[in-house]
Write a structure and sequence with these properties.
The chain is α/β, with parallel strands linked by helices. It has a domain at 392-397 and 414-754: TIM Barrel, CATH 3.20.20.210. The protein is globular and about 75 Å long. One of its GO terms (molecular function) is 5-methyltetrahydropteroyltriglutamate-homocysteine S-methyltransferase activity.
Amino acid sequence: MAKIHTLGFPRIGKHRELKRALEAYWNQKIDKPAFTQQIEALEAQRFESFSHLDLVQVGDFSLYDHVLDTSFLFSNVPQRALQSRDSLDNYFRVARGKASINDCCAASASQMTKWFDTNYHYIVPEFNQDTVFSLNSDALLGKVRHARSQGFEVKPVIIGPLTYLYLGEVSDNTPVLDLLDKLLNEYKLLLNQLAKLGVSWVQIDEPALVTELSPQWQFAYKYAYEVLKHAQVKLLLTTYFGDLGDNYKLVCELPVAGIHVDLTRAQIDASALADRLLPEQVLSLGVIDGRNVWVSDLSELIEKLQALAQKKGDLLWLAPSCSLLHTPVDINTETNLPAQVKPWLAFAQQKLEELHTLKVALGPNPGAASAALLANKKAIEYKKRSALRSRPEVQASINAIEPSWYVRDKSFTQRYAQQADLINLPQFPTTTIGSFPQTPEIRKLRQQYKARAITLNEYEKGLEQHIAQCIAQQEEIGLDVLVHGEAERNDMVEYFASYLNGMLTTDFAWVQSYGSRCVKPPIIYGDISRKTSMTVKWIRFAQGLTAKPVKGMLTGPVTILNWSFVRDDQPRALTAKQIALAVREEVLELEANGTQIIQIDEAALREGLPLKRAQWTEYLSWAIDAFKLSAGGVKNETQIHTHMCYSQFNDILPDIQRMDADVITIETARSQMKLLDAFNDFKYANSIGPGVYDIHSPNIPSVKDIESLMKRAMDQLPSERLWVNPDCGLKTRAWPEVKSALENLVEAALALRQNQVSV
């Protein structure tokens, strides 16, 4: 009889209990014992979801990030963060620079970047030739003991040694694989400790195996697992997010007790894979999509799995494709979804229920699953027949697109000169990325309107007051290009989804992005078009309050796509083109209303890049075209900005150049301007705003720090094409720290201008 398990489960809780506990602790509203008590209650809530699982995972829960947890598990912690004996405080210093609001031992936070091709951010491990690993397993062992005491068959989850090294950054010239032997020694100790606790299986995650590995890395995998095969526990080697590609043969030959593969994103013949494995090896199949929210076609899966289930018996394990970290917790928290669409959806809890149905249907008493299978079949059939998915007018608009819609009339150099004459900005123009703090007052106003405690007119008047205050603050600070602050927006994607046909927003379908930061990805269920103006009245109102230019702020088509749960019945490229047309309409309306600068954020463009290079050309072709379609209709005098955060650009700079945005803003504060090396080597031709204020940390950058970063930027790029700005939006920060940081930013820009004049 097949077994069922999951690779991981959402950490945040049904009602974002993790977020609330973290922020209360950081703001010193609760002490450590109270914080610990809240976390224990949240972990107990998670275990309530695991009653049908044959093996319950331990180690996937994290207070901030599971990669950071691995760094602490092996004591690979930057020395600058080890300011006290309190490991929890040191942990948060690595993650965010401060352990609490009044932390006197603040440190530079470690870099943060995207977890493979997802919107989850991990804390990058730091390595050098002096790196020493030392096992610190008390916390993990304690969780194992606790779970076993409740009668669960426990399966600890750890990141594999090669993937951990693959994800890190080396600060010197040390080849990272030179650290492998030292790290393997600690892994052996850990596995032996788990064996002594009675653990039979350990899930060891190696998603790096779905990337393109060099022969050196492939050999390192063979070597590492030869070393680990002598452990007294069984290893389930876990891969996800894609096809094994050239690593298929390697994985099949590794000396592990079981292998997990992602069948939702990989073209793998499960039966052929079973034949390649030893008869005694477990084959775990990721048959439920762990990264989208559509119900699975269980009848189709049963048909595919039946013969394999009979052949492998209890050596066939069924699971989601990857950790359910990337999905909301429970569809039952949603009460306002359209009745036609809700049956099509499955969140994390429902995905575990789907697994249970599969197990029963493939077992000795399949009739016990008949009711669940019938309901599933009805949902699948209704979704296929539904007229909600298709809009003829959208298809007509797609067919009407002309090649000229993708390009600007003149080159960047010609455009930028015209824009400089019209907008009249100083050298090193200062601006922000778009959002300003979402204060308790703004959130209360939104909640009152949502609860119908105030009228639409009262709500909009309240928003106007907040926008006016935001403009006044920026005027006082002395910024050159202002923004309206986005008080009306709950999220940079969710807000736009509410103005687009073919997209749904939810009330409580939260997903963790990093730490305490959660988002509610919209759900794309049909053809997309713009219902009405989305931003124009707010930008027009803000511009009426100041003589300085106010940027129009939009989210780009690829980011809306990548940060949504996307329909699974048509190519993503077509969906992106539909969104691009909707954004284009808004861009042209902003321009017609006098907006001189329009920012179209594509924060997620790099994130969507396939993990296999062979697929890059296709993705970048339609993704860049979607951006160009959204921006290509404006006059030369209209300045187009875009923003990309926490991404590596080295390999796609020709495509970023092809976007032809007049100004691109990027994250460079945590990376100390290292990203600019690639832009300089490539000879990137357009203007850049390298971030000088790390907004994901409560630390306030000094004038000296900002000047130092900008001088490094000036060593790489012409000063006349440099802007000065934060790394990202300021939504999650508080006004006092924002004001101080931006005042320092403006003061640094003034000093840079003075230095340039004196030179």
